[in-house]
Amino acid sequence: MIEISALQSPIHSQLAITGSKSESNRLLLLNQLFENALTLENVSNSEDSQLMQKALANKTDVIDIHHAGTAMRFLTAYFSIQEGRKVTLTGSERMKQRPIKILVDALNELGAEISYQENEGYPPLTIIGTKLKKNSITIPSNISSQYITALCLIGTKLENGLTINLDGKVISVPYIQMTIQLLNKVGIKAAFKGNTIQIPFTEVIQPQTLQVESDWSSASYYYSLIALSKNSEIKISTYFENSLQGDSALQVIYAENFGVISTFENGVLSLKHNPEFQLQQAIELNLINTPDIAQTIAATCVGLKVNCVLTGLETLKIKETDRLVALKTELEKFGAIITITEDSLSIDGYQDDNEIPTLETYNDHRMAMCMAPLAQLQPIRINNEMVVEKSYPTFWEDWKKLGFEIKSI
């Protein structure tokens, strides 16, 4: 357990954040599919991306990706087209509770040979690589975008390409758009129009160097900190105003609701608080396109004692933990009165709470990081703080640079 407390205010500091985990994992798999034609710079140093790289280089018949959900989805698709190779793809106990049936069903319909070793619909999986001959698939649209991205990435190597028809209202659109834009960037003429994704067979791509933009989900914790820290300024790199990442919506969300101003100069993002901003008593946000920043926004609201209604959160229940239940449990320790449904979280008032809260992380990196900005207001304690290694291994070192005292209890 650690205890975090603020030593200085206002904060003036500059940090460099590692590359986006989402972009990195997509590009790492593409690079493997196209025989290392890409030279990648600023690749994420997250545990997830490291596990992805190790799995792609692994020549054994059992591959353990631990807690890495993105790797599980992407690699299920990847190994399904490695003709003649048989692998067992497994993970942590929590990973064995995370559903993967929709992706497995889709791949098997395309001609894959994937079966379950333990429980139907869940890892571990036995995958026998084969040639997928079918070139179209219809899947529900209200599923994890990682299932869809996994199909998009391997579709580039199916001899007739792949058409993906999405049935119903599409959620997490920015993550699908990121995949299509990255494919376009390396020269693959993929398209996403309406509810249809077209992925053409592509034999080779031209050798090129790509810089991975830093992770906007990781930037969210600094937006929250600025919202809670008047007269502070934090500069972080490497970020671009016209980002491929859906979580860059932070710029608008935090400007309109919390008064945080974003400016860019030569890849450096500067965050400051607008001194003329008037905080609302309550806010309403639909986060269907940006579920990974929902925890940060909820914690910001608690820090500012703002009521809120956050909707579009249906995918939070199948993440590293049930994030809706976890948020309710932990934020109530700050006196917040919280109601959750299957796809929403509401805060409707606050009670006094003067104790130093001890917060659980549930093996969820974002539960640890979203709470950290609240230490600007009062000391907090966090159990199992090293879960941050999943996406942001240097998180606590960076917070020390900002002037926070972090000590073991």
Automatic annotation (TrEMBL):
<keyword id="KW-0057">Aromatic amino acid biosynthesis</keyword>
<dbReference type="GO" id="GO:0009073">
    <property type="term" value="P:aromatic amino acid family biosynthetic process"/>
</dbReference>
<dbReference type="Pfam" id="PF00275">
    <property type="entry name" value="EPSP_synthase"/>
</dbReference>
<dbReference type="InterPro" id="IPR001986">
    <property type="entry name" value="Enolpyruvate_Tfrase_dom"/>
</dbReference>
<keyword id="KW-0808">Transferase</keyword>
<comment type="similarity">
    <text>Belongs to the EPSP synthase family.</text>
</comment>
<dbReference type="InterPro" id="IPR006264">
    <property type="entry name" value="EPSP_synthase"/>
</dbReference>
<comment type="pathway">
    <text>Metabolic intermediate biosynthesis; chorismate biosynthesis; chorismate from D-erythrose 4-phosphate and phosphoenolpyruvate: step 6/7.</text>
</comment>
<dbReference type="InterPro" id="IPR036968">
    <property type="entry name" value="Enolpyruvate_Tfrase_sf"/>
</dbReference>
<protein>
    <recommendedName>
        <fullName>3-phosphoshikimate 1-carboxyvinyltransferase</fullName>
        <ecNumber>2.5.1.19</ecNumber>
    </recommendedName>
</protein>
<feature type="domain" description="Enolpyruvate transferase">
    <location>
        <begin position="57"/>
        <end position="399"/>
    </location>
</feature>
<dbReference type="InterPro" id="IPR013792">
    <property type="entry name" value="RNA3'P_cycl/enolpyr_Trfase_a/b"/>
</dbReference>
<dbReference type="GO" id="GO:0003866">
    <property type="term" value="F:3-phosphoshikimate 1-carboxyvinyltransferase activity"/>
</dbReference>
<dbReference type="GO" id="GO:0008652">
    <property type="term" value="P:amino acid biosynthetic process"/>
</dbReference>
<dbReference type="InterPro" id="IPR023193">
    <property type="entry name" value="EPSP_synthase_CS"/>
</dbReference>
<dbReference type="GO" id="GO:0009423">
    <property type="term" value="P:chorismate biosynthetic process"/>
</dbReference>
<keyword id="KW-0028">Amino-acid biosynthesis</keyword>
